[in-house]
Amino acid sequence: MQTGSCIVIPAYQPNKLLPDYVRALRNVTDSPIIVVDDGSDPACRPWFEQSEAVPGVTLLRHEQNRGKGAALKTAFIWIRRELPQTTCVVTADCDGQHSVEDVMRVIEACHANPGALVLGCRTFGPETPKRSLRGNRFTSRVMKILYNIDLEDTQTGLRGIPACMLGPLCTLRGERYEYELNMLILARREIIPMVVVPIQTIYFNNNAGSHYRTVADSLRVAGQMFRGLGQYGLSSTLSAVIDVFLYAVFVKWIMNALPQSARILLGGLAARLISSVVNYTMNRRLPYVQTKSVRQTAGRYYALWFVQMICSVFGAWLLALLGLGELLSKWIVDLLLAVASYQVQLRWVFAKRGELN
C-alpha cells in the first residue's frame, strides 16, 4: 500500500489506452487515482467512463479544453480539499509514455525522499522523435543557463510532487505546457530538492498522439523560460539609464572642472552607488531568487557591486583612452558586466545561504 500518495492523470482526447492504463495501475497500487478530462470530445467519453468505473478512481471534468497546466491545477485543488492527508502526488501522462513500473518507482522515490520533487527523466537516443529531442535539448540548455536547473529532461510529465508544493502550485502561472517548467523554477526558488529517477523512453507512432502545438505551445514555453531574463533586462536597463544619466550629469556638468581621470572615477562611483539601490530592490523580486532577506543578500550584492563598479570604471577609462568616448565606453563595458552579473546573482547573491550553486 502506497500510504499518502495519489496519482493524477490529465487527459485530452485519449484513446482506449487510458482505461487500460488505469486498470494496470490499480492492479499494483491502491493509491487514489484522479483522472482529469480536459474538455475532450464526446467521442472520448466511453474511455473516461471505463476509467471512472475502476475502484478508487475519481473523474474531474473541464467543459472545454483549458490546457495541461489547468488540468493539473484542478486536480491539485481537489486533492487539497478532499484528500488533505496526501503526502505526495504523482502525475503521469495518459498516452502510455510512462510505464506502470516507472510510476511505482517514482512513488517509492517520493516516500524515500519526503519533501523532494521527484522527476522521472528519460534518456534521449537516436530513436527519439526529432521534434521531442530538439525541444528537450533546447529547454534543458536554457534552463541551465537562466535558472541553474541541470536536468536532461525538463519536460517530463512523470513527477512526484510533495504536499508542501501543492498550495503554491494551485496558483502558479501557466495553463498549458509552460506550467511544468514554472514548477521547476518554483522548486528551485523555494529550495525544494529535485531527485531524478531514470525511466524508460517510450513513444508511440513517432509521438503522433501528442497534443503539443509546435508553434503556440513553444512560444508559451519560451515566454516563461525567458521571463526571468526579461525582468532582469528591464531591471538592468532601468538601472543603466539612471546610472548613465547621473554619470553624464556628474562628468559633463558637476565635475567638468576636474581632469578626465578624476571625472570618470568620481562620476562613475557616485552614479553607480545611486543606481545600485534601484537595481538591488528590483532584482530581489526576480524568479530565480531563493532568498529576499536583506540581511543575507545585501552584503553579497554590494560585494559584487564593488567589483562590478571597479571593472566598469577602469574598463570605461581604458576604452576612453582608445578614443571611443566616455559615454560609449561605459555602455560597452556595462553591457558585458551585466551578462556576467546575471550569473553571479543567480548562483551566489540570491542563492541559498552558504551555498554556491
TrEMBL record:
It comes from Candidatus Ventrousia excrementavium. The chain crosses the membrane at residues 232-255, 261-281, 302-325. The lineage of its organism: Bacteria, Bacillati, Bacillota, Clostridia, Eubacteriales. Residues 6-140 form the Glycosyltransferase 2-like domain. GO terms for biological process: protein N-linked glycosylation. Gene3D superfamilies: Spore Coat Polysaccharide Biosynthesis Protein SpsA, Chain A. CDD domains: DPM_DPG-synthase_like. Keywords: Membrane, Transmembrane, Transmembrane helix. It holds the Pfam family Glycos_transf_2. This is Glycosyltransferase family 2 protein.
